[in-house]
Amino acid sequence: MKGTRAAQRYAKAVFNLAKEKNAADAVKEDMDSILKTVEGSDDLANMIGSPVVKPSLKKKVLTAVFKDANPITLGAFNILLDNGRINILELVAKQYLLRYNSANQTQDAVVTTVVPLTDELEEKIQKKIIELTGNGATVKNVIDEDIIGGFVLRVGDIQYDASISNSLNNLKREFKNNTYVSKI
Predict the structure, then answer these.
(1) Residue 128, CB-side half-sphere exposure with 13 Å CA sphere
(2) Residue 114 DSSP code
(3) Which of 95, 77, 13, 90 minimizes the C-alpha distance to 49?
(4) Residues near 28 by Cβ (< 8 Å), separated by ≥ 6?
(5) Residue 18 belongs to domain spanning
(6) 3-state DSSP call for residue 133?
(7) Helix (H, G, I), strand (E, B) or coil at 106
(8) Which end of the chain has the smaller Cβ count within 10 Å, N or C?
(9) How far is the CA of 155 from the CAs of 80, 108, 109, in angstroms?
(10) Are residues 39 and 116 in the same domain?
(11) Could you tell me the keywords of this UniProt record (predicted)?
(12) Residue 22 belongs to a domain
């Protein structure tokens, strides 16, 4: 993806500064907010990526939208704007979160279920995550009725599919591959 290496460098610089100033947690919250806001708003994403919109206007919009952001985050906006790289803001936020999670030995997990997770189920999922990866994770629950039942767990590049729809698909494949023909 274009801009990934640059985003890694900016994220590393922001993370190191945030750690130095004991503000890594606050900046993580900002980066979460940036990521959710940019992903959730096509208008904002288009404005940030547009070469037609002046950097001064982009700065006004970003500081208005993220008015409660940490000064380090606001400084990152300024550096990206000054260097003409504000278009990679979303990538910088993703890279920062990856660095933060790696440094804190945590990760993000996405659990797809048919119904919302209860505390008891979330505890069982946490145990499964620790079994699979050796570390805990922040669990995000996605509701999808197409899996019929069970759950699908994604942590990094690991996927554990314990869904009913997966079991049914596996059974369907076995029936298709079965070459047994009855002689009756």
Answers:
(1) 20
(2) S
(3) 90
(4) 96, 97, 100
(5) 4-103
(6) helix
(7) coil
(8) C
(9) 30, 6, 5
(10) no
(11) ATP synthesis, Cell membrane, CF(1), Hydrogen ion transport, Ion transport, Membrane, Transport
(12) yes
Place of tokens 């400084």: 75
Residue for token pair 């069970």: 150
CATH code for the domain of 65: 1.10.520.20
- Give the pLDDT confidence of 43-101 residue by residue, as tens digits: 999 999 999 999 999 999 999 999 999 999 999 999 999 999 999 999 999 999 989 98
48 and 113 both lie in a single domain: no
Answer yes or no: is 184 within a domain: no
Res 4: pLDDT: 83
Q: Is residue 182 part of a domain?
A: no
Q: Give residue 103's pLDDT.
A: 87
Q: Could you tell me which residues come within 8 angstroms of residue 74 by beta carbon, excluding any fewer than 6 positions away? A: 63, 66
| Unique residue bearing structure tokens 């699979």 | 132
For tokens 């997966």, name the residue. 166
Which residues sit opposite 84 in a β-bridge?
A: none
Query: Is 183 part of a structural domain of the chain?
Result: no
Distances in Å between the alpha carbon of 125 and those of 17, 51, 121, 157? 34, 44, 6, 17
Do 72 and 14 form a contact (C-beta atoms < 8 A)?
yes
pLDDT of residue 184: 54
**Cα–Cα distance measured from residue 13 to residue 150, given in angstroms and rounded to the nearest whole number:** 41
Query: Is there a contact between 123 and 113 (Cβ–Cβ < 8 Å)?
Result: no
